[in-house]
Automatic annotation (TrEMBL):
The keyword Hydrolase applies. InterPro entries: HAD-like_sf, HAD-SF_hydro_IIIA, HAD_sf, Heptose_bisP_phosphatase, Histidinol-phos. This is D,D-heptose 1,7-bisphosphate phosphatase. Mg(2+) binds at D8, D10, D133. It comes from Acetomicrobium thermoterrenum DSM 13490. One of its GO terms (biological process) is carbohydrate metabolic process. It comes from the Bacteria. Its EC number is 3.1.3.-. PANTHER family: D-GLYCERO-BETA-D-MANNO-HEPTOSE-1,7-BISPHOSPHATE 7-PHOSPHATASE (PTHR42891). Belongs to the gmhB family. One of its GO terms (cellular component) is cytoplasm.
Length: 194
């Protein structure tokens, strides 16, 4: 079994522009490549899990989402690090158009995308992580049975409680960016191996 880091996409890997609707809007955030390289050097699978309700709302197609993921995959590979998989949820429980306006099992913080990855990649969830810029990502980590790191967003920081994290020892796991999150994982792994 292998461990994984499940990564949110918008606001974690690339700038969050609301509903990404043009390839020209893709801008990788600072230090993301360095963070991904560090995680990969520790042996983690890198798996993107992202809610893309813009599909349900008719803002863009699943083909567009796949195209964005293909471009990101090539971009990261060209910079020396491979993303192992991209999973996305095109649904929204109350808005949008059929067949996407459903209460699915894949929309974060539900664990459908992670469950698929566990089956497809033989993942040890207890030694895996979720990194994202929303409390939904931290809730996903808790629901999946792994640890979570919240990337610092001022609007989320005011409402954080220790109970939001997988366990209270992870309350300090609020980091500025993906690279700091990767360093935190490295320090956690080092502490557990001694």
């Amino acid at each position: 079994m292998r461990s994984a880091v499940f990564l949110d996409r918008d606001g974690t890997l690339i700038e969050d522009v609301g509903y990404l609707s043009s390839i020209s809007q893709i801008k990788v955030l600072p230090r993301v490549v360095d963070g991904l390289k560090l995680l990969k050097s520790m042996g983690y699978l890198l798996i993107v899990v992202t809610n893309q309700s813009g599909v349900a709302r008719g803002f863009f197609s699943e083909d567009f989402v796949q195209n964005v993921h293909d471009i990101l995959g090539r971009l990261f590979k060209d910079n020396g690090v491979a993303i192992d998989a991209f999973y996305y949820c095109p649904h929204h429980p109350t808005e949008g158009f059929p067949p996407y306006n459903v209460n699915c099992d894949c929309r974060k913080p539900k664990t459908g995308m992670i469950k698929r990855a566990i089956c497809e990649y033989d993942i040890d969830i207890s030694n895996s992580w979720v990194i994202g810029d929303s409390l939904v990502d931290v809730q996903l980590a808790r629901n999946a049975g792994c640890k979570g790191i919240l990337l610092n967003r001022d609007d989320d920081l005011h409402s954080i409680s220790k109970e939001s994290f997988c366990d209270t020892s992870l309350y300090e796991a609020v980091k500025y960016d993906l690279f700091e999150g990767a360093l935190y994982i490295k320090s956690d792994v080092s502490l557990r191996s001694h």
